[in-house]
């Protein structure tokens, strides 16, 4: 089993990833655009860890998300990805939900859940 974590390289989300791996050992596909908050140094301790797959990309990229869903069949999508101001955030969440929903239709065999948070 696996989960897909979007925006998983910032301070809070990287700690979520580290904790998740320590507690479950479940494969984590970590998708992050590495913009202003994402920092791979936060995940440095996972270098070479077979249970952590880092993918540089955007949760809003429907084709990329569809490929990740098809390849890894995650049971859940947990999104920490966020923009900085409220209007951008609202557009991003709505747009991302639509795009991810379309991608999930292409991979109906996986269970899924989407959560978001505001930084």
Secondary structure topology:
Layout: E1 2-6, H1 11-24, E2 27-32, E3 52-56, H2 62-72, E4 76-79, H3 86-105, E5 114-115
Parallel strand pairs: 1-2, 1-4, 2-3, 4-5
What does this structure look like?
38% of the residues lie in helices and 18% in strands. The longest helix has 20 residues, at 86-105. It has one domain (2-115): NAD(P)-binding Rossmann-like Domain (Rossmann fold), CATH 3.40.50.720. Strand 4 (76-79), helix 3 (86-105) and strand 5 (114-115) form a beta-alpha-beta unit. The protein is an alpha/beta fold. It is built from 3 helices and 5 strands.
Structure in a nutshell:
The protein is α/β, with parallel strands linked by helices and 119 residues long.
Question: What keyword list fits this structure?
Answer:
about 120 residues; alpha/beta; Rossmann fold; five-stranded parallel sheet; 3 helices; globular
**Which strand order do you get reading across the main beta sheet?**
3-2-1-4-5
Elements, N to C (H/E): EHEEHEHE
Number of strands: 5
Termini Cα gap:
28 Å
Helix content percent band: 25-40%
- Uncertain ranges: none
The quaternary state of the protein chains shown equals single chain
> What is the domain total for the residues?
1
How many individual helices?
Answer: 3
Percent range for β-strand residues = 15-25%
CATH architecture: 3-Layer(aba) Sandwich
User: What is the approximate shape?
Assistant: globular
Query: What would the CATH topology be?
Result: Rossmann fold
């Amino acid at each position: 089993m696996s989960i897909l974590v979007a925006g998983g390289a910032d301070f809070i989300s990287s700690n979520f990833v580290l904790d998740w791996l320590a507690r479950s050992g479940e494969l984590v596909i970590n998708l992050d655009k590495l913009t202003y908050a994402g920092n791979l140094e936060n995940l440095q301790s996972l270098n070479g860890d077979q249970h952590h797959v880092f993918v540089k990309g955007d949760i809003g990229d429907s084709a990329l998300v569809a490929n990740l869903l098809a390849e890894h069949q995650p049971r859940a999508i947990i999104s920490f990805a966020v923009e900085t101001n409220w209007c951008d955030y609202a557009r991003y969440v709505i747009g991302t939900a639509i795009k991810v929903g379309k991608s999930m239709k292409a991979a109906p065999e996986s269970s899924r859940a989407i959560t978001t948070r505001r930084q």
